C-alpha cells in the first residue's frame, strides 16, 4: 500500500514565505509536524521553550503551512499542510 501525500503547497504571500523560510521557526519546526504532533511534543524534540514553539505554531497555522490534524479534548495535533512547498523566487528577499 502506498502512502497518500497531500499535493504540493504553492506559497503565494510574503507572510507565508517568511514563515516558511525563517530558520528558527520555519522548516526546522515544520519537520516536527510531518506526522501529527502537539506543540509541546515539538518543543521537547527541539529543546525549545513550549511557549516559544506554540507562538510559532500559531503563526505557521495562520499562514496555512500547518493544519489541525486532530483534536483530543484540549490537545491539538497539528500536521504540515504539504510535504512539498513551492516558493516563488519573487517572494524570497535578497540578503
Features:
alpha+beta, Arc Repressor Mutant, subunit A, 35% helix, Helix-turn-helix domain-containing protein, WH-like_DNA-bd_sf
Q: Would you mind describing this structure in some detail?
A:
This protein is an alpha+beta fold and 95 residues long. It has a single domain, classed as Winged helix-like DNA-binding domain superfamily/Winged helix DNA-binding domain (Arc Repressor Mutant, subunit A, Orthogonal Bundle), CATH 1.10.10.10. Helices cover 35% and strands 18% of the residues. The chain has four helices and four strands, in the order βααααβββ. It has helices at 14-21, 27-30, 39-46, 50-62, and strands spanning 9-10, 66-72, 75-80, 85-86. The strands form two sheets. The chain has a two-stranded parallel sheet. A two-stranded antiparallel sheet has the order 2-3. Helix 3 (39-46) packs across helix 4 (50-62). The mean pLDDT is 88.
Task: Detail the topology: elements first, then pairings.
Elements: E1 9-10, H1 14-21, H2 27-30, H3 39-46, H4 50-62, E2 66-72, E3 75-80, E4 85-86
Parallel strand pairs: 1-4
Antiparallel strand pairs: 2-3
Helix pairs in contact: 3-4
Provide a brief overview of the structure.
Helices cover 35% and strands 18% of the residues. The protein is an alpha+beta fold.
